[in-house]
Amino acid sequence: MELTPRRFRPSGYTIAASIISVGGLLNGYDTGCIGAVTTMPYFETTFGVLSPTIRGFTVSLIMLMGAVPSFFSGQLADRFGHLHIVMAGALVFTLGAILQASASQLSMFLVGRALAGIGEGLWLTNVSVYITEISPAARRGTLVSLPQFMATIGVCTGYFTCYGSIHIDSSFAWRLPFIIMGVLAVILAGSCIYLPKSPRWLQINGRRGEALRVVERLGISSAEAEKDIFAPSVENAPPKPGMTLRDFSVIFNKQYRIRTSLGIFILGMVQLCGIDGVLYYAPTLFTQAGLPAGTASFLASGLSAILMLAISIPASLYADHWGRRTSVITGGIGLSACMFVIGSLYAADGVHANTGAGRWFVIVLIFCFALLYVSTWGIVAKIYASEVQPAKTRAAANSLAQGLNFFTNWLVAFATPIFLAHSSYGTYFLFGGLSLFTVVVLAMFMPETRGQSLESIQDAFHAPHWAWQMRSIVSSLG
C-alpha cells in the first residue's frame, strides 16, 4: 500500500500573524533607509546639507508624529476593530510615502514624514495586540515576535537598498526607498480586507457566533478557545464603546495600575538604551569609529543588519522557550556593558581613525549591541507589554505604552546626531546608564509570563511578590 505523504499546512493564526507583520517590515525598512538617505549626495543636492539638528529632526519626525495617534488608536480599535485601524494607518502612510518620494523641497518631504508617522502610530500598536489576541498560549511568544523579526528584515533590506541605490546617477537614488515603502503600505492595507477579525474582539462585542467561526478558521482548538477566549472573567469584560477620557483612566485604577505601568515602562525604556541611534545612524557611527565614509560604512551597516537578521531567526522561534525575565535581565546587562566599554574607549582617547585596535573594538561592540537587542529586548518588550494586560484594558494600555515608545524613539533619533557632534563618549555612557536602570527596575517588578494563557497571566498580579511586600514593609516602617 502506497502512503501519500502529508502536506504541511500552517495554521490559520500563523498565516494571519505573518501577513499582518508586514507592518513590522515597513517600520524596519524606513528605519534602515532614512539615516542613509539623508547622507546621499543627490539628497543633499535636492535639499542642501542638513545640520545635525535638522537631520535629527528629519529622521525622527516619523516617530514624533507616530506618538500622537498611538495614544488613542487602542480606543479606535475597541470600537471599529484592529484591522480597520491598521488599514487606515497603512493608507495614510502610503500618502506620506508618495509625498516623500516626489518631494522637491524639504518642507514637502517633512509633511510626508509626518503623515507616514501618523500612519505608523495607528497600526503598530494594533498589529501586536491583534497577534496577541489570535494566538494560542503555546505559540504566542513566537508569533508576537514576528513583527519585530520582520522589522529586522526591513532594516536589513533598507540598508542594502541604499547601498545599491547610492550608485544611481540621479535623485532616484534617494527616492527609490520611498517608492518601495508606498508599495509595501498598499499591500498591508489590502491584506486587512481578507484577514479574520480578532475572536476576542468579536466575543467582547457580543458576536459569539462569528467569533466561533473565526476560531475555526484560525485553527485554534475548541478546548483552547473555551479556556482562553470564551472563559467569563470580570477583568475581561468588554470595554465601553466610544470610551471617553474619563473611561480611558480606568487603566490606572488600583487593580490595573501595576500592569499598565509595567507595559508603559518596558516599551518606553527599551528605546532609551540607544538602539535607534545605532539603527538610524549606523553609517555615521562606523565612520566616526574610523571606517571610510560612503560605501564602506554603508556596507558595514548592511553587514550588521544581516547578522541581526540571522540571530533574530532562532530568537523568534525560541521566544516561548526562554523566560521573559531571563531575556530582559541578561540582554540588559549585555547592552549596558557594550555602551559603557565604547564610551570608555572614546573617553580614554583610544579610538583613532587610521591606527590602533580601538576602532575595531568599537565596531565589534556596535555589532554586539545590535545583536543583543534584537535577540532579547526587541522581542520580549512588545510581547510582554501586550500579554500582561487584561482584555478590558489591553488596547488602551498598549496604545499609551506604544505612544511613549514612539516618543522615546523620537527622542533618541533626534538627539543622537546632536550628542555625537558635541561628545563622542557621553552619548554611550548615557545609554548604558539608562539600560542598567531598566534592568534593575524590571528585575524587581516583572513576573514571568511565558507559556501562560492571557487570562491566567492576570493571577500573577494578584499573588504576593517580594518586591511589593518589601515596599509595603518600608511604607509601614516610615
What does this entry look like structurally?
The structure is a single chain. The chain is an all-alpha fold and 478 residues long. 76% of the residues lie in helices and 0% in strands. It has 24 helices and no strands. Helix 4 runs antiparallel to helix 5, helix 8 packs antiparallel against helix 17 and helix 16 crosses helix 17. It is globular, with a radius of gyration of 22 Å. The C terminus is likely disordered.
Task: Give me a quick take on this structure.
The chain is mainly α and 478 residues long. It has helices at 12-20, 22-37, 41-47, 52-80, 82-102, 106-134, 140-144, 146-165, 172-194, 199-204, 208-218, 222-228, 245-248, 254-269, 275-280, 282-289, 295-317, 324-347, 358-375, 377-387, 391-422, 426-445, 454-460, 466-477. 76% of the residues lie in helices and 0% in strands.
Number of strands: 0
Number of helical segments? 24
Stretches where pLDDT is under 50 for at least 5 consecutive residues are: 466-478
Helix content: over 70%
Instruction: Give Rg in angstroms.
Output: 22 Å
List the keywords.
single chain; 478 residues; mainly alpha; 24 helices; 76% helix; disordered C terminus
